[in-house]
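Supplementary notes for students who missed Thursday's class. We covered one full example, reproduced here. Read the sequence, then the structure, then the short commentary at the end.
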Amino acid sequence: MSEISDHLKAIATATKEQASALQDVNNAVATIDQGTRQNAAMVEQTSAASTNMAGQASQLRGFLSAFRLEDFQASAQKQEPARKHDGVLALQDGG
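Structure (token representation):
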């Protein structure tokens, strides 16, 4: 009878150890899930920021297309070395 009791105690102890180990695994999975969700949110934010930045870059290209850099460089080279250039770019439309 004592042998059966020992086996039952061993089974109870093993069951408790397995339950504890399963709880640890469950906690680890929850932590990984939380990290994955945070990463997904950051990816979404980064994507939105990239899209916004691409739109701003496009708008900036449009603004800059109004200037003729060649004329600006040529006029800067013609000026006397002692004079400072005021940094104003010529508009393409002549204004």
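Commentary. The mean pLDDT is 84. The two ends are 107 Å apart (CA to CA). If anything here is unclear, bring it to office hours.
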